[in-house]
Amino acid sequence: MSAKSQKSASEGRYLSFQLGQEIFALEIKCVSEIIGMDKITELPDTEKYVKGVINLRGHIIPIMDLRLKLHLIETQYSKQTCIIIVDTGTNKVGIIVDSVQDVLDFTNKQIDITPEICSVSNLGIVTGIGKVQEKNVILVDLFAILASAKINFEKLRV
């Protein structure tokens, strides 16, 4: 994918979260809620990053481990591990992260375009690098993550 066709991060509010040693963030407007780890019902014949489903107040929500989706090293869940429930407008999905950090406001001056040096940036998942004080925050596109995921939402409808 060329840099021209890749979506770039834009200024706004982002929810930051940790995966391993890195801080990531996604646009907060997609976030519905944040919950602690819940009992996940595993589903057969799914990608490794699709951990299963949960029942959230009567709604079946597919759960994806973002660490595995981004090809990071798998670790055991801790007390800080949580699920970010995101809403695409047509579906809700839970994304497992190591911990939720903060809500960050980025201006365009604080965001650098991501070089196309890795597979996730080539898929449009990583849309930029935000700078907060002396730290880099990897900005991700929720819709690109879900578009590249193999989740059949129609089979999950209740």
UniProtKB/TrEMBL annotation:
Per the database record, which ranges form the CheW-like domain?
Answer: 11-151
One GO CC annotation, please? cytosol
Q: Per the UniProt entry, what is one GO biological process? A: signal transduction
PANTHER family noted in UniProt? CHEMOTAXIS PROTEIN CHEW (PTHR22617:SF45), CHEMOTAXIS SENSOR HISTIDINE KINASE-RELATED (PTHR22617)
Q: Which organism is it from?
A: Fluviispira sanaruensis
Q: Can you say what this protein is called?
A: Chemotaxis protein CheW
Q: Which domain of life is it from?
A: Bacteria
Supply the Pfam families for this chain. CheW (PF01584)
